[in-house]
Amino acid sequence: MAVRLLIVVLLISLVSLTHASDPAPLQDFCVAVKDDEAKVFVNGKICKDPNMVSADDFFFPGLNMLGNTSNPLGSKVTPVNVNQLPGLNTLGISLVRIDYAPYGLNPPHTHPRGTEVIVVVEGTLYVGFVTSNPADPNMKNKLFTKTLHPGDVFVFPEGLIHFQFNVGKTNAIVFAGLSSQNPGVITIANAVFGSDPPINLDVLTKAFQVDANVIKYLQGQFWWNID
171 a known binding residue? Predict the structure, then answer.
């Protein structure tokens, strides 16, 4: 456990030394007020009265607990961003723990507001990301992949589609730091085929160059969010 905690501390330190996506703070701290208690809406969170701030605003317990991977994807993300830890407001960092059952998947997704760096604590993961569209229309988006083992670190650049897949026969665990208090998540399949209301059938049929029945089938599936 001491090794895991050391890894997490190191991970947070590395992220904090990078240029974060979020604006720099203008005071020592700005503990977030819950959205349902706020009287105004701003880009981020409004600040709690400093005289009402306590140590609990900077504390989150439980990352030592296993995530429940009993779902179709076999993975569970436990986020620690500004919504769980209000003291992160304006600090430009957040953290997640990800658990994977054997052959569990964190499916292709993006973080529109943050770079992600992961460190493997247990298991063997096949990970990768895909570049944005190249300037040359004759070139394809490039895929970068790596098989990771305990102690290995990998970074996913901000906004790029990426994934992690447990290729081992045992459970896997990673911790990840992100360069935003609220990096956001867009799971590609969920967004394209599971939006509410659904994207127009003609749009998706044209975009994917497949029969309309294929799109109808995909839109009829239950798209699982892992966090």
Answer: no
Return d(Cα 78, Cα 182) in angstroms, integer.
14
Residues 195-219 pLDDT 10s: 999 999 999 999 999 999 999 999 9
Q: How many CB atoms lie within 10 A of CB 57?
A: 16
To the question of whether residue 106 is assigned a binding role by annotation, the answer is yes
Distance CA 149, CA 163 (A): 16
Residue 113 to residue 81: CA distance in whole angstroms: 12
**Burial level of 186, CB count in 10 A (0-12/13-18/19+)?**
middle
Dihedral sign for Cα atoms in the order 53, 54, 55, 56? negative
Residues near 51 by Cβ (< 8 Å), separated by ≥ 6? none
**End-to-end Cα distance, the chain:** 24
122 annotated to a ligand binding site: no
Helix (H) or strand (E) holding 189: helix 188-193
Helix (H) or strand (E) holding 175: strand 172-178
**Buried (b) or exposed (e) across 140-169, using 16+ Cβ within 10 A?**
eeeeeeeebebeeebebebbbbbbbbbbbe
Return the structure tokens found at 64. 């030592």
pLDDT tops 60 at residue 42? yes
Higher per-residue confidence, 61 vs 3: 61
- What is the spatial distance between Cα 65 and Cα 203, in angstroms, rounded to a whole number? 43
